[in-house]
Amino acid sequence: MREDNMLTIIVPCYNEEEVLPETVKELGVVLESMISEEQVSSNSKLLFVDDGSKDKTWELIKKFENQFEYVTGIRFSRNYGHQNALLAGLTTAVDHSDMTITIDADLQDDVNAIPEMVKKYHEGIDVVYGVRNNRDTDTAFKRKTAIAFYSLMSKLGVDMVPNSADYRLLSKRAVEGLLRFDERNLFLRGMVPLVGYPSDKVYYARKERFAGESKYPLKKMIKFAMDGITSFSTVPIKLIMNLGLLVVLIGIGLFIYSIVQKINGNVVSGWTSLITSIWVLGGIQLICLSMIGEYVGKIFTEVKKRPRFTIQEDDYTKEFLK
Ligand code: UDP
Ligand code: MG
């Protein structure tokens, strides 16, 4: 058992008024029992990060703050997205916590895995990944695309723990290591393995969303996947080179073919191959351009060094200053 055991559970919330009461209840039960078993210190916290919700999320957080000693919250000035909300939670909590756990607000991640994660922390592990052992609640489409995504990422050389999302425990030094990554395009599940330190996994069954609907529609999911790929790997740029070589080879083949046709006297035929190659080449050029554009766009957002979030209210830090 480690002496330093102040835990902050970070919960990003975007328009989660429907689930929040249940989330506070379930996380509260887990936290209280861990406090009574002295697994975590009595000043451990549930930190809700309101990511610019438009519904009553912040009012609810305030209400629960008054009701429960361990509930506290920070509020963004606008919606900055899930990854930035997690980052803000970690940045705010790191000075006061010995360990942090990040978990979604919608109770899809089984809260019973939390004590297991804490147990691993006491065994000296710095990073404990929550890994889902089933994907029954996902649609067949989401399952297939997820498998394809993880295998693509591993082919691109990005070390990720398959089927782990943003449900994980980080020790203080792991959080400090993570916060030294200064990038704007956040893809935390790719960044955490890069921090290093001893790590382990805890398996859990992923459930249906308790209430409300997903804040990750297909469009956001595709953007997230693209961010993951282009923030972590330059392999797509190298692929352009290979593609170019292939196109040149095809061009040489076509050239030889047309010479043979000319010798045989079939001169006028050629329109079909011409029009085909124009279209094929045009398409390839567009793909390559968009790939380059993707990286240029990344450089653009990185060099601007815009703030990754703006906190409007911070009850968490206030509490420690009291
Ligand atoms: N979330 C957030 N900001 C956003 C979108 C989502 O803080 O812009 C939070 C959301 O409240 C939830 C978590 O991120 O706690 C995961 O979102 P969701 O459950 O909608 O994603 P899914 O599980 O469908 O992938
Ligand atoms: Mg969810």
TrEMBL record:
- Asked whether the keyword Transmembrane helix is assigned, the reply is yes
Q: Where in the cell is it found?
A: Membrane
Taking every annotated instance into account, which residue ranges of this chain make up the domain Glycosyltransferase 2-like?
Answer: 8-176
Q: What is its main location?
A: membrane
List residues traversing the bilayer: 239-259, 271-296
Q: Name one GO cellular component term.
A: plasma membrane
Q: Which CDD domains match?
A: DPM1_like_bac
* InterPro entries found in the cross-reference section: Glyco_trans_2-like, Glycosyltransferase_2, Nucleotide-diphossugar_trans
Annotated Gene Ontology MF terms?
Answer: glycosyltransferase activity
Q: Which UniProt keywords apply?
A: Glycosyltransferase, Membrane, Transferase, Transmembrane, Transmembrane helix
UniProt topology in membrane: Multi-pass membrane protein
Instruction: Enumerate the SUPFAM superfamilies for this protein.
Output: Nucleotide-diphospho-sugar transferases (SSF53448)
- One Pfam family hit: Glycos_transf_2
- Annotated Gene3D superfamilies: Spore Coat Polysaccharide Biosynthesis Protein SpsA, Chain A
- Which PANTHER family does this one have? PROPHAGE BACTOPRENOL GLUCOSYL TRANSFERASE HOMOLOG, UNDECAPRENYL-PHOSPHATE 4-DEOXY-4-FORMAMIDO-L-ARABINOSE TRANSFERASE-RELATED
Protein name as catalogued: Glycosyltransferase
Taxonomic source organism? Ligilactobacillus ruminis (strain ATCC 27782 / RF3)
